[in-house]
Amino acid sequence: MRFVFIGSGTLAVLTSRMLVERQHEVVIIERSETLIEQLREEVDAGFIHGDGTRPAILREADPEATDLLFCLTRDDQSNIIASLVARSLGYRRVVTKIEDPELEHICAELGLAGSLIPMHTVGRYLADMAEGQDIIELSDILRGDTRIFSFRANAAEALRIDALSLPESARVICVYGKDDELRFADPDLRIQEGDVVVVLTRTRSLKVLRERFGPQASDSQHGGGV
């Protein structure tokens, strides 16, 4: 697989190294030529010198050949702009890093379902640890080719769960509604616009799920009526 990173902070470099170790192709977009020269010694990746919010630079990174774009600069607004430009250029999947939690609902309204708030994730982890809760990593639970897929429902996906057009090897396990309210899946549960739907599936079904429920999917692909 091929992954493109905008920014070269700690999170971007760490993730890049892990992906390279797993034999994936990695490209890093960075404004600073000095940083690029330093990173060449640390990460076996391709590099593009330039501003990752600019359409010309994102085109140079080749949207059609890229499986996932990570927008991981230190500036929330730059990450949001880069994500929107990337989506307009045809990048299939985009992860948008934001540090300000107040921007999360803006990302949702803009259709940036892959928003990431690192400090929130770490904070929840530490709070659970402080309370003595048993911290279980997803990697300890998901065995073999089992995978988790999630998407934010749009108006066309405001259906009962059993009306969603899912692959045979995929099942909805829960839905997060307003204010992150958890609702466990049952066939009669109706999904509301804006809900986050969590699906348990197998690797072979991920491509179909991304095509049907990813940001670039058309409304006609999202299932039948209620």
From TrEMBL:
GO terms for cellular component: plasma membrane. The keyword Transferase does not apply. One of its GO terms (molecular function) is potassium ion transmembrane transporter activity. It holds the Pfam family TrkA_N. Residues 1-118 form the RCK N-terminal domain. Keywords: Ion transport, Potassium, Potassium transport, Transport. It comes from the Bacteria. The keyword Magnesium does not apply. InterPro entries: K_uptake_TrkA, NAD(P)-bd_dom_sf, RCK_C_sf, RCK_N, Trk_Ktr_HKT_K-transport. This is TrkA family potassium uptake protein.
